[in-house]
Amino acid sequence: MASTKPNKYFSTALGQIIRRRRMTRTFDGGPSLEDLKELGELALRAPSAGFSQGAHLLILVGDDLQRFWQVSGVGAWFGKTSPGVLEAQSVILVLADESAYTNRYSEGDKAGHGLEKAENWVKPMWLTDAALVTQNLLLLIEEQRWGALLFDLFVEPRKLLDAFEVPANVHCAGVVAVGYRHPQDQPSGTPTQRKRKASVDLLHFGTWNTHIEDPLG
Ligand SMILES: Cc1cc2nc3c(=O)[nH]c(=O)nc-3n(C[C@H](O)[C@H](O)[C@H](O)COP(=O)(O)O)c2cc1C
């Protein structure tokens, strides 16, 4: 049975932002370049393995943004499926520099585990770190009551990255369209067709097979 107790954590400012956040697919302009710069600076203050700090943000507005929509092919896709996305003020590419990690793990305090070679990592942690920056972006944008849509480069990401002079060992972890949420923007996408899974099925305590309905009860 679900708890009826008020939850002390979800009522914090951050808890409310996390609960309120949803993807925006109809934009109406958006913040200035100065505000986007501040947003980016704050979002980059995320944890990183070995403090490698390999996440970068490429902010595109104006003509650069139009070139992004065109070269990536994403503009044509959203033009057909969700044209309101193309009214966003900016897209921010979240980029992961693999070599920042292989270089950092060649240094004295980290050397000796073979991690100076990307293929020896059990997973590409540069993408993990970039995902943390991405979530910072989404939450900071929601805090401002702006709008964001996270998507990825569907086809030939390298072609797009080359067009914007992104080095070969730097990968795109995701793209965040940023703008003001249009007053008529409605919840959209898959959450309108599927229910959120019950947390009791996703939270495990002690072993995979142990779930607790009300762990605080
Ligand atoms: C890695 C990733 C890729 C996504 N790609 C797309 C996308 O290409 N197009 C899109 O409209 N939404 C995309 N989304 C948004 C998800 O559909 C959305 O987060 C999910 O349905 C939950 O909805 P909410 O974020 O509004 O709560 C993506 C989300 C993630 C995390």
UniProtKB/TrEMBL annotation:
SUPFAM superfamilies (UniProt xref): FMN-dependent nitroreductase-like
Domain annotation Nitroreductase: ranges: 18-180
Keywords for this protein: Oxidoreductase
InterPro entries referenced in this protein's UniProt entry, alphabetically: Nitroreductase, Nitroreductase-like
Gene Ontology MF terms in the entry: oxidoreductase activity
Oxidoreductase listed as a keyword: yes
Protein family per UniProt: Belongs to the nitroreductase family.
Protein name per Swiss-Prot or TrEMBL: Unannotated protein
UniProt organism field: freshwater metagenome
Phylogenetic placement of the source organism: unclassified sequences, metagenomes, ecological metagenomes
